[in-house]
Write a structure and sequence with these properties.
Chain lengths: ~110, ~110
């Protein structure tokens, strides 16, 4: 079974530029999550989708971050314009459904903002 | 507020020695408990989980964890560590009161001495 796929693995941009990350969850997983992980910290949930609807985006900085999950499968997370403090690893995860079950993570996309 | 505490930021153990990583949580309802491992530059991999039943759970890579409700703890153990166990370990909890959002500890970095 294929895991959660993310791209790109690494991205370096200058502040005020834009960047987009892509995620393809495990087939059949209804719930998709985007996390931000700053070096030395645990993951922070940015947004959670159930199929193509948003369940929780309370910690998403909506002035610069946006995410979509068209057709309820793959998802894109965009940052525009980027700030220095956005340097982090962006992790995508999926689960069968919202509930007590485990999350499966991709390898992450490491963003460096100069 | 719901929280997960991993009191040790770093732990150093010799190869072949036993390991215990601590995790404490604060929840009212029955929690669903997880341990994830993150190797450098990688995503998060599930080591083990506790939902119900036997309070001692076995995971991958020779790890086990014990749920102690009276102590609100879910400590991770391994009888003999290998150099390849060097990584960061995250404890995470979810329950119905948090709408099944994963609440993460800050992580414990495991360093293995040769």
């Amino acid at each position: 079974e294929a895991g959660v796929a993310q791209s790109p693995r690494y991205k370096i941009i200058e502040k005020r530029q834009s960047v987009a990350f892509w995620c393809n969850p495990i087939s059949g997983h209804a719930t998709l999550y985007w996390y931000q992980q700053i070096l030395g910290q645990g993951p922070k949930l940015l947004i959670q989708f159930q199929n193509n609807g948003v369940v929780d985006d309370s910690q998403l900085p909506k002035d610069r971050f946006s995410a979509e999950r068209l057709k309820g499968v793959d998802s894109t997370l965009k940052i525009q314009p980027a700030k220095l403090e956005d340097s982090a690893v962006y992790l995508c995860a999926s689960s069968l459904e919202q509930g007590p079950g485990e999350l499966f993570f991709g390898e992450g996309s490491r963003l460096t903002v100069l | 507020a719901q929280s997960v505490t991993q009191p040790d930021i770093h732990i150093t153990v010799s190869e072949g020695a036993s390991l215990e990583l601590r995790c404490n949580y604060s929840y009212g309802a029955t929690p669903y408990l997880f341990w994830y491992v993150q190797s450098p530059g990688q995503g998060l991999q599930l080591l083990l989980k506790y939902f119900s039943g036997d309070t001692l759970v076995q995971g991958i890579k020779g790890f086990e964890a014990e749920f102690k409700r009276s102590q609100s703890s879910f400590n991770l153990r391994k009888p003999s560590v290998h150099w390849s166990d060097a990584a960061e370990y995250f404890c995470a909890v979810k329950d119905v009161d948090s709408n099944y959002q994963l609440i993460w500890g800050a992580g414990t970095k495991l360093i293995i001495k040769p």
